[in-house]
Amino acid sequence: MDKTVRLWDTASKACLKKFSHSDYVTSIQFNPVDDRYFISGSLDAKVRLWSIPNRQVVDWTDVNEMVTAASYSPDGQSAIIGSHQGSCRFYKTADCKISPEAQIDVQSKKRKSQAKKITGFQYAPGNPSEVLVTSADSQIRVFDGVTMVQKFRGFKNTSSQIAAAYTSDGRYVVCASEDSHVYIWRTTRSAPAAAAIGIGMKPKTWCTIRSYENFYCKDVSAAIPWTHSPSLPGSPKSHQGVVSCNDDVCSMASHAAKQDVSKSGELSRVTKSGELSSPAAPSPHSGPLDTPSSRHASKTGANAPDSGNAWGLVVVTATLSGEIKVYQNFGTPFRIKGQGNLFY
């Protein structure tokens, strides 16, 4: 918290360069196509584009609100900036020049006095027009351009700098929570529920997902999905990758398992993990892992059947005490009599 950005050599653990700001820095990101440049957002309300070789600002803009999140688009030609007041501003960044493009406000129009800061962005894998927006009103939103198309609810984020993230295939969203849990939602999208539309009212463009999986991680402050596809236990390569299924990996299924049955008749497996463990691979035909319980209903309607599942999903977490833990899901889906579709 010294109002600087520092560039580190991960091999020598040496600080190579320092980039000073006039206030605390809240977010940074390398340009995804040219890592000689990075973008930074600061509480001084300024967004800066930096040249690393020259160690200087190449362009900047003042957004007149404290900047709490910043992210390049996948092609590096634009950026999205989030503020403490809940606004998202889109800028063009081609040729290292910042120019305004569009703006959206995520806070409720009915409760503008309770505007919540934007805490993170991520563009959807394979779909650069969609961006995942996390905010401190305990909601995650998906925007297609400037149109909201999806919401995820259930986690808690009221004051933390928590950011949600897609898995590499875009099928799941993972996010830490202030209640010491990590939440996972499936991104399968259903049509918005039909509602009566009055004169002058716009039709609803989004669906809200309240069905989720979660597992316990004490004081978790950040959670991201591992971008590679690690081998599952029992496979010949299970101990050859960076993430292996040994004592360095926490099993989401090492303790109690829960079930989440939504109104649409779908099943959501919720697993909970504590200490480090080295579980054996379950049989694909195995039944419930442990004691079932039920909570949290979905208002989104039935999702389309999905052939994939989250078995083998790896989540990396960081906690307020400085611990980094790696969890891997070994739970296998199972069908409850009378249930048509599965959420897993």
UniProtKB/TrEMBL annotation:
Which superkingdom, per the lineage? Eukaryota
Query: Which InterPro entries would you find in this protein's record?
Result: WD40/YVTN_repeat-like_dom_sf, WD40_repeat_dom_sf, WD40_rpt, WDR44/Dgr2
Q: Where is the composition biased (Low complexity)?
A: 277-288
**WD repeat extents:** 1-18, 18-60
Q: Does the keyword Signal apply?
A: no
Q: List, alphabetically, the Pfam families matched.
A: WD40
Which residue intervals make up region (Disordered)? 256-304
Q: Which Gene3D superfamilies match?
A: YVTN repeat-like/Quinoprotein amine dehydrogenase
Keywords of the record, alphabetical order, are: Repeat, WD repeat
The record's listing under PANTHER family reads: OS12G0178633 PROTEIN, WD REPEAT DOMAIN 44
Record protein name field = Uncharacterized protein
Organism of provenance: Aegilops tauschii subsp. strangulata
